[in-house]
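Sequence in, structure out. Go.
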Amino acid sequence: MLTNRELTQKIIDPIPNPIIITNGAKIELANKNFLEFFEYENLNDFIQEHNCVCELFEDKAEHFSLSQLVGNTELWTDYLYASNDQVKVSIRCKNGNSHIFNITVEKINDNYMVVFTNITAQEHEVILSELAYHDHLTKIYNRQMFDQLYKKQVANQQRHGDHFSLIMLDIDYFKNLNDTYGHDTGDKVLISLTELITNNIRENDIFARWGGEEFILLLPRTKAKEAYKKAQELREIIDNHHNEIPHFTASFGVTEVKDYDKEQSAFIRVDKALYKAKEKRNDVIQL
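Output:
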């Protein structure tokens, strides 16, 4: 007749996820997939090298690690079980590669069952998506993503008659800033402008880097008059902002996208408005 330990081992071994039974300080049981993942013949070999699997959790801001525990007495299993939530951890393997897991913790008498679900591939897909659709420096949308969202907005306009407007802006004398203070300072200016705009627009407004020092905003359900007012507000916020980087200003072009606009006509119009604003600098022109 099987003991409880043998029965538990028999139950967890066929499960495709790595699984351990632990009291939080010591692993009591581990299934075959756990040992295969960490490349150990048996649990004793693993224990000889590691007191606990939690030692292998990498200390990353977005993932759980032992650094999040309070003091030296709190067990990681108690902490995760009390949180009653699925948690991500990053684990570096023998070959040096890091893998990301969702872990869930369930109480079994005086021990915990910890189930590891490998989500490395899904996390990499998220990272690739971020790289594909976001500007690497400012972290806002890039032009490719903006084009997709613009087309969706046009479709909404045709379906529901929604108003929406575009604001295009350009940092004044940006080349002079780069030439005078260097590209590192130029990058800080771009990031600073991005933060100022992001913190002063609505959640559903679409903000993207158009290219170089040019940026573009799509304002849903916004007519030209309201968009012009918003552009003036943003212009003043930028002009009045002072920090450790050199003072800079921006020029703005504004237009409302009409239902009769062709694919590029609204962009041509807002670009012309921006060109006129840059004749004066630190100005807003609506067309």
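Check: The first strand starts at residue 19 and ends at 22. The mean pLDDT is 88.
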